[in-house]
């Protein structure tokens, strides 16, 4: 990974920003920023200059256990309510099995709910009793319960160019709002971002004309 970063000239710089305009002065060389990629996820709701009110979390709670399942399983909707789902995914490279889950729109709570944990285990053991050799829920070896807030956008994922938000001819490419499918869609979205950036950097026309072209 370090070799790849060096080969591609990647430099990571950690910092905090409250407004997207602050990124104009954060290039590691101290030079002028020409392109900014906004992949701030749920942060796009409060990031100054963006403040996308279509952003809301979808709260997902999972339980990571030591037990392994010989097959993956996924079902949407359960008897425990529309906001709870069931899935069993043993990690291919080891590290336990993920039991899920929940799908709660608008819920910002980052703390695991023990009642949801209990229901997840109960459902998954009923669906995959071979995980515990038929010994029941007490045979589940919990590593931890975790919560993730998926960055959902009510009007759909946003992958687009924006030449007005920072001014001075700086291109901002937004790439956020993928909810729970960010991993699956990452390659295709990255290709689209690259296309937008390439069109900008290779173009010799004025920014106002470029806006319609992008």
TrEMBL record:
Ranges annotated as spanning the membrane: none
Entry GO MF terms: D-amino-acid oxidase activity; FAD binding
GO BP term (any one): D-amino acid catabolic process
KW Oxidoreductase (keyword) present: yes
GO annotations of cellular component type: cytoplasm
Entry-linked SUPFAM superfamilies: FAD-linked reductases, C-terminal domain, Nucleotide-binding domain
One of the Pfam families matching this protein, by short name: DAO
Alphabetical UniProt keywords: FAD, Flavoprotein, Oxidoreductase
Co-factor requirement: FAD
Superkingdom to which the source organism belongs: Eukaryota
FAD dependent oxidoreductase domain sequence ranges: 7-195
Annotated family: Belongs to the DAMOX/DASOX family.
PANTHER family in UniProt: D-AMINO ACID OXIDASE, D-AMINO ACID OXIDASE (AFU_ORTHOLOGUE AFUA_5G11290)
Protein's name according to its UniProt entry: D-amino acid oxidase
Species in which this protein is naturally found: Conoideocrella luteorostrata
Gene of this entry: DAO1_1
């Amino acid at each position: 990974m370090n070799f790849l970063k060096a080969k591609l000239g990647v430099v990571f710089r950690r910092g905090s920003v409250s407004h997207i305009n602050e990124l104009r002065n954060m290039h590691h060389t101290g030079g002028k920023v020409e392109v900014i990629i906004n992949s701030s996820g749920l942060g796009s709701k409060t990031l100054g200059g963006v403040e996308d009110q279509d952003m809301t979390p979808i709260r997902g709670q999972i339980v990571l256990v030591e037990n392994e399942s010989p097959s993956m399983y996924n079902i949407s909707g359960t008897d425990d309510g529309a906001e709870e789902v069931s899935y069993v995914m043993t990690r291919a490279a080891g590290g336990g099995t993920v039991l899920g889950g929940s799908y709660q729109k608008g819920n910002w709570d980052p703390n695991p709910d023990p009642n949801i944990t209990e229901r997840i285990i109960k459902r998954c053991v009923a669906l995959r009793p071979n995980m515990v050799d038929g010994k029941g829920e007490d045979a589940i070896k919990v590593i931890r319960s975790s919560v993730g807030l998926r960055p959902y956008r009510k009007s759909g994922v946003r992958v687009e160019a924006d030449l007005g938000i920072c001014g001075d001819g700086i291109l901002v490419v937004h790439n956020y709002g993928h909810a729970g499918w960010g991993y699956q869609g990452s390659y295709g979205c990255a290709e689209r971002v690259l296309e937008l950036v390439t069109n900008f950097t290779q173009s010799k026309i004025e920014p106002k004309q470029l806006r319609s072209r992008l």
